[in-house]
Amino acid sequence: MARTGHPIHQCNPTDYAALHRYPWVIYAIDPVYEAETLHTLVERTGVPPQIRARSSSLLAALRLLQEGDYLCMLPDAAVTGMQGESIIPTPLDMGRRSGPSGATFRRAIADYAPMQELLRLCAAHFHPAA
Question: Are both 74 and 126 inside the same structural domain?
Fold first, then answer.
């Protein structure tokens, strides 16, 4: 992913060397996601990226992408409907990966009644009784 005005959007879709012309932000929400990101880049180019920042904060990663010529691998849902400069996929095919997903929230609010209700509503919506 990169901001809409990023120069990588002008590159040839087979020019994987372009991935090394720009610094990377690694969204490090968990070790598996970070490892998959790095593995994908090495798999496509044979070389690890130049990592400028690692962030476990999605908002921080998005802000860096919006304000600079950074690249980052993010879930599609992370950039859908965001405000400010749009972040879109690069023209380079990095392949599709999928994995389990769920609500992300601070443990301190896990027993908070509104959070419990939100989780219950989500479960009912995504897994309705048969």
Answer: no
Banded pLDDT at 52 (limits 50, 70, 90): very high
Chain-centre distance of CA 18, in angstroms?
A: 19
Shared domain check, 45 and 20: yes
* Lookup result for tokens 């309705």: 128
Note whether 118 and 62 are same-domain residues.
no
Residues 87 and 36 in one domain: yes
Would the pLDDT of 125 be above 80? yes
Count CB neighbours of 61 within 10 A: 24
Structural domain for 124, as ranges: 101-130
Contact call for residues 30 and 3 (beta carbons, < 8 A): no
**Which of 111, 118, 27 has the alpha carbon at shortest distance from 73?**
27
Dist. CA 36–CA 2, nearest whole Å: 18
Q: Within this chain, do residues 13 and 64 fall inside the same structural domain, yes or no?
A: yes
| AA letter at 118 | L
Would you state the pLDDT for residue 96? 74
